[in-house]
Amino acid sequence: MNQEIRLRLKHLLAFLAIVLFLFFYSLSSRGCSGEQEEQAVVAEQNGRDAFLPNHKTGPTIYAVTPTYARPVQKAELTRLSHVIRLVPSVFWVIVEDAEKTSTLVTNVLKRSGLENRSVQLSAKTPTNFKLQGKDPNWLKPRGVEQRNTALKWIRQHLKRSRDAGETEPPGHSLVYFMDDDNTYSTELFDEIAKIEPGKVGVWPVGLVGGLMVEKPVLNRDGLVLGFNSAWKPERPFPLDMAGFAISSDLLLSTPEAQFSYEVERGYQESEILRHLTIVHDMQPLASGCKEVLVWHTRTETPKLDAEKALQKTNKKSNDGMEV
């Protein structure tokens, strides 16, 4: 009988030993698994962070975008909004060529979450300067009214900030003319942020002026000597609107600096820059003007023959929709 009890006790102890072993093994495995899961979560978060905006502080960049109603307007502004979302230092100044602002542009700002980093303005181009029918887009100056309206708003905004004693000094911000039909790298805005007070920064622009790239030409000391422009190289500043940005203190101290309807085709850039700087005093950026971070691209005009035929029957494919 005692032998049977001892045997049962041995079996019980062996069973308990197995149970304890499995219990501690389970805890150990669970700890490793939890650590691995935590590492996986961290790796996944780091992967997502690669696509999140860089939150480092820097000067505010006022990006001025003239726009007008056309079939591709929403597509153009949506693409541009995705770039601006990734650059927290950009404040978007959209100016519509219209009597009043539109719900379409308002909706783009709402959907992109940029309502607090933008202002929506309107300024209608005078009829005698408006392109008509099949006029080529180069026949008359475009965006003059809208860019001047943006400059007026920026100057007033900076003066109010200065008078209110806000922390950001008016000279520590920048103005860039950011057309809605170009293609922009987010790296461009890191370069713009390097522009010093009292300076106009310059860099190359791809696919413009009949060349693969238009760019500033520098001497051995890194000073801007001129530009490699092939189209009207005799212009005082033969560069594209996408190829420069201005320290806002220059605009505050030079109220006459703006665009004009009275200048020859291709001279809008020279018209504003002649008040602000000289070629040799411009600040070269983008690795000594060796990198292309913006391209002068244009959306192809959509073929809407079927839509026009549909409209003749008092119908339209986008009835009740915003395209």
Automatic annotation (TrEMBL):
Known catalytic reactions: 3-O-(beta-D-galactosyl-(1->3)-beta-D-galactosyl-(1->4)-beta-D-xylosyl)-L-seryl-[protein] + UDP-alpha-D-glucuronate = 3-O-(beta-D-GlcA-(1->3)-beta-D-Gal-(1->3)-beta-D-Gal-(1->4)-beta-D-Xyl)-L-seryl-[protein] + UDP + H(+)
EC numbers on record: 2.4.1.135
CDD domains reported in the protein's UniProt record: GlcAT-I
UniProt keywords, alphabetically: Glycoprotein, Golgi apparatus, Manganese, Membrane, Metal-binding, Signal, Signal-anchor, Transferase, Transmembrane, Transmembrane helix
Main location: Golgi
Obligatory cofactor(s): Mn(2+)
Name of the protein this chain belongs to: Galactosylgalactosylxylosylprotein 3-beta-glucuronosyltransferase
Organism field: Anopheles darlingi
